[in-house]
Amino acid sequence: MNRPSLPAGREMKRAFDNASSLVGEDAHRKRPKNDPMHQSNTPLRFLVVHKVLCSRHNNHPPESELYKDTPRLYRGDDRTAQLRGTTILEEDVLSEEFAEENPDVSFIVIREYDCGVYHDAARDQFKHIPVSDNMIHVLRKFKVQLTMLNEDASEANPVAERIALISEGVSSGMKSVRSAYPSYFLSSDPAIGDLMAPYPDFYHGRTILTEESLDSLGDLDEEQKGHVVLLSGYVQSSCASDYKEADEQFQHGVVSKMHFDKLFSPEDIVIRSTEAGPRAYCVRRVETTPLRIVRLDCWSWAFDGKFYQDHSRWDIPWSARADEVSIDSLLLYPLRLGSTRLRNQLHERGKVYWEFRNRKMVEYNSLSSGFELQPVSRAPRYYLTTTGLTITLG
Ligand SMILES: [Zn+2]
Predict the structure, then answer these.
(1) 217 and 272 fall within a common domain
(2) Distance, CA 83 to ligand 1 centroid (Å)?
(3) Residue 66 falls inside a structural domain
(4) 287 and 219, same structural domain?
(5) How many angstroms does the Cα of residue 65 sit away from the middle of ligand 1?
(6) How far is the CA of 128 from the centre of ligand 1 (A)?
(7) Are 379 and 313 in contact (CB under 8 A)?
(8) Is residue 138 part of a domain?
(9) Is residue 351 domain-shared with residue 224, that is, in the same domain?
(10) Number of domains in the chain
(11) Does the pTM of the predicted model rise above 0.70?
(12) Is residue 362 one of the residues assigned to a domain?
């Protein structure tokens, strides 16, 4: 039997394939021996649950219960059947009571499926039901076709995934990480909500969440570190192919809509092309809106007689109809992914700028304001203009 092709979820499913190996004993992480809860010798673990959403069929609930198994349709189902799993979770695994009673459960992975999308993909698997000639006549009169599945259809592919951080250990552990790296992992604040795949924070913070790096923080106890490493391990495993594909695109100077929200990292230097030449900004915070607009909070040096940090916010929409666009065609783009020539150009300009900034300014002549500082020495004169810094000997 052919596997249903679900274009909307195909890439997501591929990214999640590796995760299945974690949903078992391998997903467990032993509690440290100095942990009071170690008395039960219960390893840390996470749960993967499945939820069906339906906006296609009037008689289906918009949201299903949570299932233990991956939803699908089954032998004998017709085209009005609801996508579903076989085992409904009895417990409310997202409740505070569950978290208190199951301190070994660090987080819950919730995979979401679209009933209508699944039906579209499984359309060819429905077979006509043989009926008598008289029945065919009646069915034609009412423009009805009788079809059903002769065998179970394939498991559905998720269209979305999110993670609920339910344990105190993982929440406080990630809070400590955010304290050490204030620009990273902002989405792991429970006040914001669940973590949403493909977890761009964890793409950019890959090197921060290794055991070695966490050891160097010093702010996490062994319990918290165990939770954070378990969470990071799940994300890095389930998104491994997704992250690898993003890396390959960026290395080739292009970005697709799918990887757009991974393009910008906190602390990136980003470039904006202006009539006066490229201008650089330092990224303080990256946020992706539901409309797939990447919002960057930035700062840059500015000068109005004295130097100061100029703060700005930039919204970068994905508006291209093409599958991929050149990174340097965007409103802003990371300098690390720009051309070598641009990096060298800005580096040289910056060296002169900081000489001017720190010790050699003798005259400032703004073309727009006419503001001017008088020379204070016989050193070469440095002029800051709208197109950059110019130097004259005089
Ligand atoms: Zn439905």
Answers:
(1) no
(2) 6
(3) yes
(4) no
(5) 13
(6) 20
(7) no
(8) yes
(9) no
(10) 3
(11) yes
(12) yes
DSSP letters of 265-317?
-TT-EEEEEETTEEEEEEEEEEEE-TTSEEEEEEEEEEESSSEEEEEEEEEEE
Lowest-confidence segment of 78-82, 258-262, 325-329, 385-389 by average pLDDT: 385-389
DSSP-derived letter for residue 259 is G
Ion ligand 1: protein residues whose beta carbon lies under 5 Å: 54, 56-57, 60, 115
Q: Decide if pLDDT at 385 tops 60.
A: no
Distance 59 CA to ligand 1 centre (A): 8
**Are residues 145 and 258 both part of a single domain?**
no
Cα(80) to ligand 1 centroid in Å equals 7
Closest CA to 88 of 107, 61, 60, 65: 65
- Rounded to 10°, the helix 222-238/240-251 angle is 70
Residues 31 and 154 in one domain: yes
Dihedral angle over CA of 344, 346, 350, 353, nearest 10: 130
CA–CA gap between residue 187 and residue 194 (Å, rounded) = 8
> Could you tell me which of 295, 291, 297, 298 has the C-alpha nearest to residue 257?
291
Ligand 1 centroid – CA 194 distance (Å): 25
Structure-block tokens of residue 320: 């291209």
Task: Tell whether 333 and 361 lie within a shared domain.
Answer: no
CB atoms inside a 10 Å sphere around CB 81: 18
- C-alpha 189/C-alpha 196 separation (Å) is 12
- C-alpha torsion angle, residues 365, 357, 387, 305 (rounded to 10): -40
Q: What is the pLDDT of residues 111-169, one digit of tens each?
A: 999 999 999 998 888 877 666 667 666 666 665 567 788 899 999 999 999 999 999 99
Strand ranges inside 231-276, DSSP E: 254-256, 269-274
CA 15 – ligand 1 centroid, Å: 25
Within-domain flag for 1? no
Owning domain of residue 135: 7-241
Q: Give the H/E segment covering residue 350.
A: helix 340-355
Cα 116 to ligand 1 centre (Å)? 6
Both 362 and 268 in a single domain? no
208-218 average pLDDT score: 86
Of 100-104, 190-194, 271-275, the range with the highest mean pLDDT is 100-104
352 & 328 share domain? no
Whether the CB-CB separation of 111 and 130 falls below 8 Å is answered with: no
